[in-house]
Structure formats: C-alpha cells, structure tokens
Design a protein that fits this description.
This protein is an alpha/beta fold. It has a single domain, classed as Rossmann fold (3-Layer(aba) Sandwich). The chain has five helices and five strands; from the N terminus they run βαβαβαβαβα. The protein has a five-stranded parallel sheet with strand order 2-1-3-4-5, sandwiched between helices. Strand 4, helix 4 and strand 5 form a beta-alpha-beta unit. The radius of gyration is 13 Å and the shape is globular. It starts with a strand and ends in a 6-residue tail after the last helix. The mean pLDDT is about 90.
Amino acid sequence: MLCEDTPFNIKLIQSLLAKLSVELDIAENGKLGIEKLEETKYDLILMDLQMPEMDGFQTSKYIRENLGLKIPIFAMTANNSELEKSKCLKEYGMNEYISKPFKPETFYDLLTKYFPNFNS
C-alpha cells in the first residue's frame, strides 16, 4: 500500500512497480491508510511523511501501537535529515527511510532486502 497525497509521487511509484506483478492500493492520507489496513492484509507500506489529516508519523505509530502490525513501513520523504531518519526508525517504528528523489535502483534494493524473491 502507498500512503501518499501528491499525484506526481503516486504516478512515480506506480511506474516503478508497473513492470512487476505487484498490486498497489493507494491511500491519500494516513487515516484512509488505517481504514484500508483494517480491511486488507498488505506486505508493505510506502509511507509519505507529510500528508493532510493524518501524517506518516502518526499513522506509523498507530499501526504499531494500536493495530499491532509488524508490516514493513518505508518512510518516503523529501527531507534528508539524519534527525528525521532517526525519529522515523526509532520513535515511530518504521523500517526504512528513503529520501525523494531517489534512484529506482535504491528502491528496488530495499524491496529485495525485505522480499528476497523480488526481481526488478
């Protein structure tokens, strides 16, 4: 699932995953993402940090603390701050931190880390 509110970024992720046999659900904010998680089991969440209504920090914390899910969460943000990265990984239970813009190879390498059978 992709939690993202920016149409350009949605299109980018869709294009990166288009050549693969990957189903992608999109939630335009964290609240919608949580609603989707309560109905559907996902293998991965790509989480934008800056979204309206419920941002990626609040959403990830809710997923970990209230839903108790261990699903991998990749933070995706335009910020390239070590402090923010540390906060995502240590305080909010996210598994990875990707700064936008990123190289497709970086994205595919992370997918392979969590899904060894993944083939880009």
